[in-house]
């Protein structure tokens, strides 16, 4: 699906969120990445195979 060089990370790689955004819908709170991952504003993910990844924000330092 990716036509970038270098090729974006695949949907099953740990750095999958580094892929390019190909469709952005900030009004609805999600973006489609070129590897087929749907990235939500709360940092949750929907992978192309239907797997859901819970939001994973970094802890805030006190």
Would you kindly provide a brief summary of this structure?
The chain is mainly β and 62 residues long. Helices cover 0% and strands 26% of the residues. The chain has no helices and five strands.
Structural notes for this entry:
It holds the Pfam family DUF5999. With 62 residues, the protein is mainly beta. The protein has one domain. 0% of the residues lie in helices and 26% in strands. It contains no helices and 5 strands. It has strands at 21-25, 30-33, 38-40, 45-46, 52-53. The chain has a 5-stranded antiparallel beta sheet with strand order 1-2-3-4-5, with no helix packed on it. It starts with 20 loop residues before the first strand and ends in a 9-residue tail after the last strand.
